[in-house]
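tool_call: predict_structure(chain=1)
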Amino acid sequence: MTIKDTPEEWEIRATATPFVGNKTSVRTDDVVMPGGSVVHRDYQVHPGSVAVLALDEQDRVLLIKQYRHPVRQKLWEIPAGLLDIPGENPLHAAQRELYEEAHVKAEDWRVLTDVYTTPGGCDEAIRIFLARDLSEADGQRFEVEDEEADMEHARVPLDDLVRGVLAGELHNNCLVVGVLSLVAARHGDGVDALRPAEAPWPARPFES
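tool_result:
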């Protein structure tokens, strides 16, 4: 048996959007279950995101620390951001986020992994990239605001992050998934076997 997620869509009898926010909305669908009953399913509609695990020549990961109001914590994270434009190329978005949040550019890009953050209540899909061969970006730094104006920056050894994840000290999903995926890749077929940066992404189709 092949263990692989497969596309499927059950019948929707009715749909409504009771809330529309700045970037996301909430949708209510009446979904027909396999037994014929119809149930309400509420979920957040999200444009999708990208994240970047940027690894320097000393095997350190570039991190930012940012206040996240819903969980009332400042979390260590890897650079990430929304796909602001429908159909946006995720690699271009990731390069933009790395520049804006860290003023860094990278020469080597690969797809580390693709995940759904909370598929029981949100349709957000995130593509996490591995970026290597880092250098300082050209030009002026991007002007940040709101929570981003209070960000801290650090470069932390990969092994220290693994320990922090397993100790329950680091909680950001992109950081956790990205760090453990990189370790798994190294112990598997190697980083060079990762998908290319422009690999198809069915969850958020895009043009090269």
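agent: The two ends are 33 Å apart (CA to CA). Proceeding to next step.
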